[in-house]
Amino acid sequence: MDYYIRLKEDDKEGAKSSSQKILSEASRVYISNIQLLIDKLVHNGFYDIPIPKDSYDETLQRVLFFKDVIENQDGYKLLYTDHKPIKKEKDLQLLFKFTWFATIFDVNAEVNNGRGPVDYKVSLGNYDKTLVEFKLASNSKLKQNLQNQIKIYEAANGTKKSLKVIFYFRKDELYKIKRILKELKMENDENIILIDCTPNKSSASNVK
Fold first, then answer.
1. Model confidence over 84-132: pLDDT tens digits?
2. Beta strands 161-168 and 192-196: pairing type?
3. For residue 58, which of 124, 118, 113 has the smallest C-alpha distance?
4. Spatial separation of the C-alpha atoms in residues 152 and 131, rounded to whole Å
């Protein structure tokens, strides 16, 4: 152990290089990519969304717009660093936060009412609440989370309204999601939104 500690102490340049790499990646994810997302939202008139009928309708509009930006407007590039996909669901949560400008609803992340933190709770008073959970298809507990987690959060927050948003970066991840949803008999659930983050999408001129 003493030799190991001494080795790490002597490798100051290695530690410095590693720290710089981490800071560079964080800068791309949390500054550059977020600015690109905001620019897309402004350009497409997102902040002019009409007043929705309830928190579920409002949240669904935001999720579907986020999906459209990622799938149809090259927004998937915001989810890659050095050609590698985002590995943390918290990064997805942060990007989604920037779609919540100009809303009459109270939007809170990581709300914990005793059974663990839900990604988002969108509410207008105590009787209109919608929960959102973001999941990566690569999550090893995806099936367990879909089956049990959101139900527990709904009970803890006193609501029956929720959305589950799943991001996939490869075709085999899509097959995995579809298999799990079929096993859970959730393949037709309208509150489960899949977002295609696969790169190298075909040009419109090549689509037959």
1. 888 888 888 888 887 887 788 999 888 887 778 899 999 988 889 999 9
2. parallel
3. 124
4. 11
